[in-house]
Amino acid sequence: MKLADLHGDLFAPLEDALARVRPAIELAEVAHVLSVGNGIAEVVGFTDLRADELLTFSGGVMGIASNLSEHRAGVIVLGATSRLRPGDPVRRTGRVVDVPVGAGLIGRVVDALGRPIDGGSPIDAERFLPIEQPSPPIMHRAPVQVPLQTGIKAIDAGIPIGRGQRELILGDRQTGKTAIAVDAILNQRDSGVLSIYCAIGQRASAVVRVIQSLREGGAMERTIVVVASGEDAPGLQFVAPYAATSMAEHFMAAGRDVLIVYDDLTRHARAYRELSLLLRRPPGREAYPGDIFYIHSRLLERATQLREEYGGGSLTALPVVETQAQNISAFIPTNLISITDGQIYLSPGLFEKGHLPAIDIGTSVSRVGGKVQLPAFRAVAGNLRLMYAQFEELETFARFGTQLDAETRRRLTRGLRVREVLKQREHDHVDVPEQIAALLAATEGLFDDLEPGAVAGAERTVCAAVRANLPDLCDRITEGAKLGDEDRAALIKTLREALSGAEAGTGNGNA
Ligand SMILES: Nc1ncnc2c1ncn2[C@@H]1O[C@H](COP(=O)(O)OP(=O)(O)OP(=O)(O)O)[C@@H](O)[C@H]1O
Ligand SMILES: [Mg+2]
Fold this sequence. Notes:
Bound molecules: adenosine-5'-triphosphate, magnesium ion
CATH architecture of the largest domain: 3-Layer(aba) Sandwich
Oligomer: single chain
Radius of gyration: 29 Å
Strand order of the largest sheet: 8-12-11-13-14-10-15-16
Mean pLDDT: 91
């Protein structure tokens, strides 16, 4: 064989292979970390970075470009900054932060970026949505009309919440704020409402307790839990509620009703304050940055009831806020009071006295009001708030040991029985017909002759009797029928019979 032939044999395949090679040129703008702080990093080297663009650091940690100046960018780091070093490369992604959305999230516990933290399989995402989305325009919104039953008598009767409403839950620490939000989620077992519980800045142990309550109550299969705990980076705590809202909006766009709980926005505001101070933004009142009102209003404006033409879904928001020493006129609580459509105020005084749930009915309000209540409530709870407020006033007055006339004594007796009926343990949900039966019995004075301690037992008796003897009426009440005079008379008759039967029963037992 000639040398030339050998040459051809050897090189032809190589030349062929070389001809097929198409070097893929990856264009990436790479900058570097200049300095790292607690939760933020300063980056230099980008030329046309966009506001809120997602960046990736080495090691997979992500960040949001926040403070942009000509050559530098302040970046909110969405992960531990301990692994970042000055000089590390940083890459642009060309997109903003997004999260997986869809049915694959239901029943799961995820972090603020939608990554599973329950030890389960990876999330099966239908699509990805940016965490910040414009709120629905006014013309897409419908009035709030459908009630969202919480199963808590004081709320459903006195401070009703409608689907698409934003109702603030506020109170000092350890007054039962989380308990109310969790009970509202648990009560959605037959309503078709999906729930999202977003924990922000809480202790991990507190979050575990909530997840356990949801599992035990069988609510986890229609709930998503989004967690950015107190140990997580402030950046993750800051983005968590926006991410959770995007997950909810996916279902709302598909016509579902969604309930979202942000627990709590005080800690969210603190995480944002920390980031803003580290980014050297000028501090304002209580050292919060100037846009603190805007970050909460752009979050809560996303809750709404959509019109039928736009899917007809709804997003009801229950933001939680912690007050200090009952100061509801502090900066963050007043901001949130003005953004939301009402507030449920929990009083530490009532909690100490054992009036649980510790809802202060006088200070609480629902600006959507009776319009969203099932019509049957109007007949029994129409003047509940007024009557209860008058009773509380009388009670304060009576403490001075004044001589009381018979009418005042009667109103005090009645008010005390109503208070007993409004007491309710955690996870002890009451359906609407039973709520109406119990409130009617109390406001009509059927419990007046009982000791306050015996009211709870009597309440159980009358509720069972109404369920057993008036099933049709119960169904009609649930379907939204008005309570006519005849229905009312029938109800009162059943209540009286049940009470006298129970009395006779105890009488016989004692004999
Ligand atoms: N209706 C109720 N009946 C009985 N116990 C209740 C009731 N509501 C709340 N509690 C109890 O009160 C305690 C405080 O409740 P919860 O954790 O909901 O309060 P919180 O205001 O969310 O507290 P934190 O400020 O720590 O978040 C819990 O131990 C809870 O079990
Ligand atoms: Mg709590």
